[in-house]
Amino acid sequence: DAPTVLVTGGAGYIGSHAVLALRDAGRRVVVIDNLVTGFRWAVPADVPFVEGDVADMALVGRVLAEHEVGAILHFAGSVVVPESVADPLKYYRNNTAASRALIEAAVAAGVPHFIFSSTAATYGIPEVVPVAEDSPQRPINPYGMSKLMTEAMLADVAAAHSMNYCALRYFNVAGADPQGRSGQSTAGATHLIKIAAEAACGKRDHVSIFGTDYATPDGTGVRDYIHVTDLAEAHLMALAALEADPARSHRLNCGYGRGFSVREVLDAVDRLTNRTIERRIGPRRAGDPDSLVADNHAIRETLGWQPRLDDLDTIVRDALAWESGLETRRG
Ligand code: UDP
Questions:
Q1: For FRET with 100, which of 94, 131, 148, 311 sits at 20 to 30 Å CA-CA?
Q2: Residue 143 bears catalytic tag
Q3: Which of the residues 13, 91, 123, 143 is marked catalytic?
Q4: How large is the average pLDDT for residues 203-222?
């Protein structure tokens, strides 16, 4: 019997999809989430749920022992880049310091495997696109730095203790569970596909385009949008790799290796809804690179990961389906 997996932030957007993937694969799961941005209903009723903070080492220690946890998938954290600029210490607390406490509890309990939600924001403004894992990591905001510091802790801990880890560096995660069991639910979204889906569902009257003078084919920012269900699958495969070879750790980009511009995303939403969202051209947003696309050779080769939902229309369609049913699901 495979050991239980602890999912921190399992009530959040990406974490809840990972819980579904683990459960679908027959793995036992326990979730810790403080419900600050997550939702209790996002976790299936048959999955043990502990409301609490990952920085609470006593609580985490009890959960690790009681459930005989053999791996941790660590999603819990704060993710809003502009907020990290305004309140950096919140990010160094919720991301860096909380991760430090969680890792210490994991080492104390002898947990052998750790998977960490890292980000393309650790690369800052890349010199070369598509960006590979060995590119310089020079974050340009506290969010990216708070995640990079956790990567550094994990590398040092893996060298000193019997734990291996995988840092998965997410590009632009979007979409929703194709079966409609979870999706992006957080209010006050800042991400393009979520905002466009809200507009398409009549919850906003326009979408602002943040800059049209970027060095891209149509002048708007280009990003590597990855379907959240493919990303959840990558976590399962990363877990299998860590379990198969405890001597190896990994740092892997999670993206499709191709980008779409803001206009291409909005065109897709218009096409799929047969409507026209009002677009307002606005100024650039501070700290946005022209183009951010993953070199994904490493994750394909190391994990054998193969995207199954690599299609902008599929991502947008699943995001729209979730968005249109959100209020009824929330109850
Ligand atoms: N963007 C935009 N309008 C919005 C939100 C985002 O034009 O309301 C652009 C943003 O400048 C970037 C792309 O869409 O080029 C993706 O931004 P998002 O915030 O979704 O993700 P990020 O790449 O910043 O993590």
A1: 131
A2: yes
A3: 143
A4: 97
